[in-house]
Design brief:
By secondary structure, the chain is an all-alpha fold. The protein has one domain. It has five helices and no strands. Helix 1 packs antiparallel against helix 2 and helix 1 packs antiparallel against helix 5. The protein is flat, with a radius of gyration of 22 Å. It starts with a helix and ends in a 9-residue tail after the last helix. This is Peptidase S9.
């Protein structure tokens, strides 16, 4: 599968999976069944995005290896490249991290964990608000209120999946 077709496939699956994720309250009344259906949607969308994410990771890694001074080994018999399976030299980021005092490392790590916890809390809050809004719309007589929200978010998910990466110089 070409890179472009993999990217389009991931975008379509992201859009359809997002619609399915948010439409579950319209289709399934059981809370347990909705949980399993949503987990399945997340699994499918994640699996579809893995090849594209791996391609982006490889492109970033290859670009860093081609940078001046990155991956060079003067004594290497392969002409300055690290052979497959060998340990790559430590990058500039790990060197910078080691130069940070331990107290600052702890503070930065704590800040990152606090940011992750805040992100999870916001996500849960937004999900609950969307569900409550859909239920209020259902109570007022709107047909498929959760699906309508899902379609809007699915279009957004597909559009974001198609947005070109900064690594892609050709697009």
């Amino acid at each position: 599968m070409s890179t472009e077709s993999a990217r389009i496939t991931a975008a379509v699956v992201a859009g359809v999976g997002t619609v399915g994720y948010y439409a579950t309250p319209d289709l399934l009344r059981s809370r347990r069944a909705r949980g399993w259906a949503k987990a399945a949607c997340v699994l499918v969308v994640t699996a579809a995005g893995v090849p594209e994410a791996y391609r982006g990771w490889r492109a970033t890694r290859d670009a860093a290896a081609g940078a001046p001074g990155a991956g060079s080994d003067a004594g290497s018999p392969s002409g300055g490249t690290v052979p497959d399976g060998a340990d790559a030299p430590r990058g500039a980021l790990s060197e910078a991290w080691r130069s940070v005092p331990p107290g600052w490392r702890a503070a930065l790590t704590g800040g990152a964990l606090a940011g992750a916890a805040t992100s999870v809390a916001l996500t849960v809050g937004i999900e609950r608000a969307l569900f409550r809004r859909g239920e209020a719309r259902r109570a007022s007589g709107v047909r498929l209120p959760h699906t309508r929200t899902g379609v809007a978010l699915g279009v957004l998910a597909a559009a974001l999946a198609l947005y070109p990466d900064p690594v892609d110089g050709s697009r």
